[in-house]
Amino acid sequence: MCLAVPGRIIEIDGQNAKVDFGGVTREANLMLMEDAAVGEYVLIHAGFAIQRLNAEEAEETLRLYGELARALEKDDERKK
Amino acid sequence: MSTPFDEEAFRTEPEARALVSRIHELLREELRGEPVSLMEVCGTHTVAISRAGIRSLMPDGLKLLSGPGCPVCVTPLSEIDRAIGASTLPDVILTTFGDMMRVPGSQSTLEKERAEGADVRILYSPLQAIEIAEESPESQIVFVGVGFETTSPTIAATVVEAARRGIGNLSVFPFFKTVPRALDMLARVPGRPLDGYICPGHVSAIIGSGAYEPIAREHNMPCVVTGFEPLDILAGIVMLLEQAASVRAGGNAKVETQYSRAVTREGNLAAQAVIADVFQECDAEWREIGTIPMSGHEFSERYRAFDARDRIDVDVPAPAGPSGCICGEIMLGQKLPTDCPLFATRCTPREAVGPCMVSTEGACAAFYKYDRETTEVP
């Protein structure tokens, strides 16, 4: 029930936005988002944008797990 | 075009393998193979863990328990009966999210009532209820307000908008629940069966990770706010095991956020303000668990006119619940679905006995669909 889907705001008209979900566009309400801007990524739940997404944090998270994977691969090679 | 938020980016195999390896290493070395139980308190996590097959990748001794994280599952029978009763009234159009349709009340379901002619409509967004209210001024539009803090602000915002437009024929059953109070209650269970919480990602996007700080502090309970993709969940488990090892060595638990791309410490302040304007905290009954003080939301004085309980007169029968079902113990983390004698025998998604089987996000439904044949469940 708490599913929320990331999308990118492509148009804002008052409290309504058009949000792109990888090629599919849907309307979303911005009443719960302060200062939303075109181009921002947001989470959509039940027709509302409920939070903005932080690209730097996403990239940093992926970088960390990538490092862990490379360390494990090196470790595996050493054991061979 | 790919973005850093694509789900595929958080489903890559080398990274998953490294995190699983780290989980095994932590349990074996830092925790010396002693049993650890972690609980997820979000139905969306329950489904994600089962669908990705994460239970089958966990070392012996690490238990992933499903808490009371499915809003449909914790809605008491009397409230379900009230919604079903309202749907049978001739001037009512009952509106709801799809999850509620098949939930059995004492005698019926919304789905059955609709088949027999009741006007029951499934909404994608609560805002659609406003459109229906404007199109059908002679009807009473009633929305079944079920959900945690992810969903309740969307319904609160809908009520604010309805009030602004002067809509008088829309009301809401306020059956909302709040997550931190339930986590606090579960942390008080004697014998301390839990070593950490996989805290819900989207509830936390609204309330902020700071909401769990009293729980980590008062109960020395590790809390990690976790996302929903396989890498998120595996990394959340790694962070919890690191904390669990530190706590067992005498350290202090804290709140950490794995899902940092969506969750901040303070959360969504605009959404919190709408909740605080439209609702006030109240005691709430959790199905099969009991009343948890101040763990629900009802309308504030200012918006009390939207309370469907005052507007819609329904005779609710004395609730007649399923017998032999252990959903309560499952949601308290004391048992697994496979411990229930009814599981996959008398109770299946097609013929559900208890609430955890009927909701697609219930622990029993997730186990039935994904884990039944792949996992030896302890």
Fold topology:
The complex is a heterodimer of chains A (80) and B (378).
Chain A (H helix, E strand, L loop, with lengths): L4 E9 L2 E6 L2 E6 L11 E5 L2 E5 L2 H25 L1
Antiparallel strand pairs in A: 1-2, 1-4, 2-3, 4-5
Chain B lengths: L12 H18 L5 E5 L2 H9 L2 H4 L4 E5 L10 H11 L4 E5 L13 H6 L4 E3 L4 H9 L4 E8 L4 H13 L5 E8 L1 H9 L8 E4 L1 H7 L5 H7 L3 E3 L4 H19 L6 E3 L11 H10 E8 L3 E10 L8 H4 L15 H5 L23 H4 L4 H9 L7
Parallel strand pairs in B: 1-2, 1-7, 3-4, 3-5, 5-6, 7-8, 8-9
Antiparallel strand pairs in B: 6-11, 10-11
Determine the number of helices of chain B (DSSP H or I, runs of at least 4 residues). 16
Distance between the termini of chain B: 44 Å
CATH class of chain A: Mainly Beta
Strand residues, percent of chain A: 35-45%
Strand content of chain B: 15-25%
CATH architecture of the largest domain in chain B: 3-Layer(aba) Sandwich
How many separate structural domains of chain A? Answer: 1
What is the residue-mean pLDDT of chain B, rounded to a whole number? 93
Q: Most extensive chain contact?
A: A-B, 36 and 58 residues
Radius of gyration of chain B: 21 Å
Question: What is the C-level CATH assignment of the largest domain in chain B?
Answer: Alpha Beta
Instruction: Give, in order, the helices and strands of chain A.
Output: EEEEEH
* Major sheet: arrangement of strands of chain B: 4-3-5-6-11-10
Question: How do the strands line up in the largest sheet of chain A?
Answer: 3-2-1-4-5
Oligomer: heterodimer
Total strand count of chain A, please? 5
Q: Give the overall shape of chain B, derived from the CA principal axes.
A: globular
CATH topology of the largest domain in chain B: Rossmann fold
Runs of chain B in which pLDDT lies below 50 for 5 or more consecutive residues are none
